[in-house]
Amino acid sequence: MTITAPESSRTHRPQSWRIELPVGSLLINANDSLHFRKKAELVKALRTTAWATARQAKLPALQRAHVYYVIHPDTKGRRRDPGNWSPSAKAAVDGLVDAGVLPDDNHKHLLGPDPRLGHPIKGSQLVLWITDLDQVTPDHIALLNPPGDPS
Questions:
Q1: In the chain, what are the domain boundaries?
Q2: CATH class of the structural domain 13-144
Q3: What mean pLDDT is predicted for residues 6-21?
């Protein structure tokens, strides 16, 4: 089955923002075996960094947003699964909530965060792309977030 966007949704591009965490920020990979205190330190650092970056960028308060993250892994060559960095993305999205960009990160206010793999960067980097869903037609949202099994 092929789904195509209606003509009306092809003409309007919703507003989006790119938030780059600093290159070399320590990121959390789901495959890491971290002591809970070390993980808590990393979560706090990522959350605070995302908060400060969002405030500095003067992101507006949104009611609903789609967030995807791009992980730019370190240049060490190996296979990579961008979904493994979801703990880092979760911490960064919590920082967006702390900054007042979103009222909450529950399903009513947030679609995502969805992973993407970017090009390798020495030191690695996490980049968030935030799109205002209140500027998107319901048909477009259905393309981003298809309904579950109707049965």
A1: 13-144
A2: alpha beta
A3: 75
